[in-house]
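Quick one:
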Amino acid sequence: MEHFVFEYPWLFLLILLYLICEKWCPARLETILFPGADRLADIVKSRPTGKKWMRFLTFTLLVTALASPVIKDEVVLERDKGYEISLILDASGSMAQNGKFDIVKNIVTQFIKERKHDKIGLTIFADFAYVAVPLTYDKESLLRLLDKVEVGIAGTNRTALYEALFMSTKLFKNSHAKRKIAILLTDGMDNAGTVPLEVAINTAKKYGIKVYTIGVGQPGDFNPYVLRKIAQETGGRYFEADSVEKLKEIYKEIDRLEKSEIEGNRYVKKRYFYMWPLSAALLLMAVLVLGKIGRKRRV
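Output:
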């Protein structure tokens, strides 16, 4: 939220000091007394006070510049209610059938956009698994990268499902969130053999991660026993999706989960405007100096 402030407002007390000195501390100059001096003083006092006000305005502008006027754009992500969520997506060759992967990406994209106060990470798997994006609040970067992910980016021949779950759990190693969630989507069965199923499940349990598993496609495409086992042992739920509508409903149901408090970040963006009153003060000072020089030349 943007708001205008002065970083050092107490400096405006200098204006009060200036007025006090102007009234009670006039400059003392050497004078020559001669007959009629009192009358001459009255004439001088009756002259316009434009220069006096220009000096006062110049000083006020200088003080304003010193007080440092700024516009603060404060963004606060405090201990907000939300998730720490790891999205685990199958990008193996079978996900290319009937545009399945593009459908999943569109639904996941909408899911990410609605999770405004959550930390979200992304893990991709096929022949091997890799963490594409660690847990982050930066949804724009996450969505840009997700848009570029295509089937085959991690190979097309195998499905390293257990490895993906195991690697995804590492995202939560230093997490202090009360609710840590992983959403694992696949249309296949693990055939990579890189990480045992029990090791992946036990690691998720170790870090307190609740895993929601989604089997996409027709019966026989994925192993419901394995997906149900992962979900049950970690406290999550198992879903099956054989249509676009069903898959959308699954993500909506997950979206209704109880929120958790997570640590956030806070930063303040400042725009400084001291240069405007400073420039105006320098311009007035130049006018005063040039006016004084002009008077001396006339004398």
